[in-house]
Amino acid sequence: MYNQIVYGSLLHVDELKKQNIDPSRVDLVKVKGFKRVFNQLPSWRKVDGIKKAVMNIEKDENSWFNALVIKDIDEAYLQDLDHRERGYNRTVLEDGSVTLYSDGTVIKNCIVYKGKEDKQSHEILPNPDYFIICKDGAKCHGKEFFEDYLKTTYKNNLDGKIELI
Q1: How far apart (Å, rounded) are the C-alpha atoms in residues 45 and 129?
Q2: Do the Cβ atoms of 28 and 101 come closer than 8 Å?
Q3: DSSP 97
Q4: In a 3-state reduction of DSSP, which class is residue 23?
Q5: Which of 7, 11, 118, 148 is the S-S candidate for 137 at Cβ 3.0 to 4.6 Å?
Q6: Max alpha carbon distance in the chain (Å)?
Q7: Distance (Å, whole) CA 127 – CA 100
Q8: pLDDT in tens, 35-72
């Protein structure tokens, strides 16, 4: 069994419901060693010019992001999720990199979906509809979580730099 880290549209409670995730299996977490950024080309979402980016994470030892952990994911669910997240690779996180918001307890056996390199671009901006789902999803988890989401989420600004949204 794994614990799955979600950091994009699955932050939204309505998106979790669509995936048949029981809310009692979800906790708020912090993930060290990565930066959350809009640089992923979509696999199945509609696109609009350069405004087509969906969420991804990039390795960055000096960064962290907030997320949800879905506890005790079985292999059947993971295979279904692999299809949904087909533009991403399932990645095992280093033990010690994920901690609970509430008390800092380390969560082990975590996986996350990290964008496939051939599906990334620093020449795109966030998909507006997707951006709203993610932002509203972060709001679902309280003021502190939402403020941390804003502090730890970056977008491309098309001149090679990453900037805070």
Answers
A1: 10
A2: yes
A3: S
A4: helix
A5: 11
A6: 43
A7: 29
A8: 999 998 887 656 667 888 999 999 999 999 999 999 99
- Write out the two tokens for 118: 């051939």
As assigned by CATH, the class of the 2-164 domain is alpha beta
> Is the distance from CB of 64 to CB of 138 less than 8 angstroms?
no
∠ Cα 54 55 60 (to 5°): 145
CA distances (Å), origin 29, targets 7, 10, 33, 65, 116? 10, 14, 13, 9, 24
DSSP assignment, residue 93? Answer: P
Residue 5 and residue 63: Cα distance in Å, rounded?
16
Domain ranges for the chain, please list them: 2-164
Global pTM exceeds 0.85: yes
Token pair, residue 102, equals: 């509430």
